[in-house]
Amino acid sequence: MNGEETVYHSKDFDWEELRQRIENDPTLQYHFLPFTNQSLSSSALDSQSWNHFHARHSTGKFFKERRYLLKEFPELASCEEHFKVLEAGCGNGSTALPILRGKENIIVFACDCSTEALDRATEIIYASNLVLTKSRFRPFCCDFSTSPFPKWLICDSCRETSLIKDFDNDKRDLSDIISSSKESECCIGGVDYVTLIFTLSAVPVDRMPMAIAECFSVLKPGGLLFFRDYGLYDMTMLRFEADQRVGFREYKRSDGTRSYFFSLNTARDLFLAAGFIEVELEYCCVKSVNRRKQKTMHRVWVHGKFQKPF
């Protein structure tokens, strides 16, 4: 690796040391108190909050392309031609764009509960002048934490018969198996990969199991889900005030959007309960410096890779 490359899968500091320091700080003790009066929000309120959020950030200054994704999840860059990716919770397109840029024949189906987000993503990606952009980027509106994905992704009949038969481990590798699942007349036959990047934390905790189960249901057997989201004791968690808590490790901002902070055990339990197999799961700990304020920031994310069994 040359000196110009950035190491994103980083271990700038030890998470256990950070945990001990934070848990021993008396000014932060309110983060760890039990929470019993958890309020549930409706899907309509979630969508409305995120519509307002993306409308406020429509100038493009908020957009930051996640170019690290192809390094963190190299399967996205080395996949077969015409592989299908479902970007679950696409936001302004910061995840979809580097995937489309990294592989000219990959197709990205991108959903979000916010129509404003879909509009921003479409504008940004169409303006990128990528090869065959309009045919490779296919946005649609869906809150998969409250309702199933549309049947054109994978119909009920194909869900039931999605197990691939006559598999010989000695003769076929993963790419051969995934690409052997053909599109049918009624649906696209599922997707090869799902990306869940800083999306699940915005879903109310009680709706997370359904969201993950839906991702599982549209994956082809052997397909992978790539996960990255806020980790426990991330700097942004510690900035929330006590009155912003709406659940255990769950917070709501003044604009109505929410954020949850995952431990490895919580993420593991959620994905395994849905039927996934754990491939990778760890904290990504990045130390950055705000030169203007001369302040060091400790960022914590959870990096995960999960597979749907054959």
Automatic annotation (TrEMBL):
Q: What class of enzyme is it?
A: transferase
Q: Which GO terms describe its biological process?
A: methylation
The molecular function GO annotations come to: RNA methyltransferase activity; S-adenosylmethionine-dependent methyltransferase activity
Give the enzyme's EC designation.
Answer: 2.1.1.-
Q: Does the keyword Calcium apply?
A: no
- Which CDD domains does the entry mention? AdoMet_MTases (cd02440)
Return the similarity comment.
Belongs to the methyltransferase superfamily. METL family.
Q: Name the PANTHER family for this protein.
A: METHYLTRANSFERASE-RELATED (PTHR22809), TRNA N(3)-METHYLCYTIDINE METHYLTRANSFERASE (PTHR22809:SF14)
Its biological purpose:
S-adenosyl-L-methionine-dependent methyltransferase.
Stated name of the protein: tRNA N(3)-methylcytidine methyltransferase
Q: Which organism is it from?
A: Lactuca saligna (Willowleaf lettuce)
